[in-house]
Amino acid sequence: MNARPQHILDCIGSTSLVPLRKLIPASSARIFLKLESENPTGSMKDRMALAMIDAAEADGRLPAGGTVVEYTGGSTGVSLSLVCAVRGHPLQIVTSDAFAREKLEHMRRLGATLRVLPSENGRMTEKLTRDMIEAARVLAEQAGAFRTDQMRNADQLAAYHRLADEIWAQTDGQIDGFVQSVGTSGSLRGTAEALRRHGRPLRVVAVEPAESPVLSGGASGAHKIDGIGAGFVVPLWRPELADQIDQVSTAEAMAMADRLAREEGLFGGTSTGANVVAALRLAEQLGPRATVVTILCDTGMKYLSR
Predict the structure, then answer these.
(1) Extents of the domains making up the chain
(2) Which of the 8 DSSP states describes residue 33?
(3) Gap between the Cα atoms of 234 and 289, Å rounded
(4) Chain center to CA of 253
């Protein structure tokens, strides 16, 4: 937490980095998790929401009291709801019943207005993502609102550059691998870019749902890992930043999220579970002298109904 916060937004960032203790085989690298659940809404998306609103206010795209529109699976929406509440911006969200209802209720409690699109049996699909994007575009046009457009908004990269700076300082620059699941691709891209500026050899692993392996050149499919796997190659994705792309199934991600809670006391969502599955694979490849960092993306409290 930042020293002497003046308001809740000052509490974003400066999260802890903790080691896994029980899940790692003796022959594997050390694995550390960045506890983004310590952010005010319990999610790493607080960082990117603040960065997008800061940039839009600074250059005049978002005037004082201006309305904001976004499409979101939940965490970005909750984070934008917090930032907009503090900054005095009405927020309209396009989302879906495919996502945890705790997130939808959290957005409402922070003052956002929601339009909830129906899903295919509660699953994330390419069609649903594209329908949400189009609905948000039309809504913003009709309302004359500022659309944060998270899939294309490069303003978020600055937030993840700061995240990388924290990781570098917390590991004393001794980091050999970085693993992160891909939603907008902003967190993987921004963090990897900033870590690589230091010149230390670094293996970067992008994680996607095994049911929808589009970054690997596979077919789009339905899955239930909240916040990642849009079903198409997202605009912010830069394939040259990832040394490898790892596929993790919904079942594997859910099982690992359960193990993290029961064996390590670390309560995260399914994207965190996917991260740790891939991090364990990388740790085995790199061996016991290496250090791997991945992200606890958000608190498991957002997913209790699921």
Answers:
(1) 8-38+163-303, 45-147
(2) E
(3) 34
(4) 15
Q: Which two tokens stand for residue 36?
A: 């983004």
8-38+163-303 topology per CATH: Rossmann fold (3.40.50)
Q: Please list the residues that pair with 294 across neighbouring strands.
A: 33, 179
DSSP tag of 43: B
CB 103 within 8 A of CB 79: no
For residues 202-236, one letter each, b for 16 or more C-beta atoms within 10 angstroms of the residue's C-beta and e for the rest, the string is ebbbbbbbbbbbbbeeeebbbbbbbbbbbbeebeb
103: number of Cβ within 10 Å: 27
**Locus of tokens 């890992």:** 225
Angle CA 74–178–242, to nearest 5:
85
Angle, CA of 80, 258 and 126, to the nearest 5°: 50
**CATH 3.40.50.1100 correct for 45-147:** yes
10-residue mean pLDDT profile of the chain (306 residues): values are 80 98 95 98 97 98 98 90 98 92 93 94 87 95 95 97 98 98 97 97 98 96 91 95 97 98 97 98 97 97 81
Among residues 70, 98, 78, the alpha carbon closest in space to that of 37 is found at: 78
